[in-house]
Amino acid sequence: MPMNFPDMESLIQAAEVHRFRRPHEDEAEEKYRVALADHVQRIGFVESMEIRTSKGWDRWTPEEGVEMLVRSGAGDLLREISVRATPTATVLADDAEAEEC
């Protein structure tokens, strides 16, 4: 279920759930949001990104979804997929198949 974290109050509630510190006095919401998201990332990549973006996964842009995957450690896999999906890679693969025949 997607979760939104639109304000400091929702961040503090999430911090309590994840046993994270309360905001420091005069700490900006954005700075606290990043620190909490970094803490939660070890527990759950999706919720971490929801905290980071302030919106549930169902409202992410494609770029935010990719960012979450990269942060999860899937960056190498994504790069490999994008290389294989390029027209050049397809042409090279077709050439290799033609040589096999």
Summary, kept brief:
The chain is mainly alpha-helical.
SSE order in H/E notation?
A: HHHHH
Q: What Rg do the Cα atoms give?
A: 19 Å
Indicate the percent of residues in helices. 55-70%
Strand % is under 5%
User: How many H/I helical runs?
Assistant: 5
Low-confidence stretches: 89-96
For the biggest sheet, the summary is: none
The 3D shape can be described as: elongated
Structural class: mainly alpha
Task: State the separation between the terminal residues, measured CA to CA.
Answer: 50 Å
Mean pLDDT across all residues, rounded?
84
Structure description:
With 101 residues, this protein is an all-alpha fold. It contains five helices and no strands. Helix 1 packs parallel to helix 2, helix 2 packs antiparallel against helix 3 and helix 3 packs across helix 4. The longest helix has 23 residues. The chain is elongated, with a radius of gyration of 19 Å. The N and C termini lie far apart (50 Å). About 8% of the residues have low confidence.
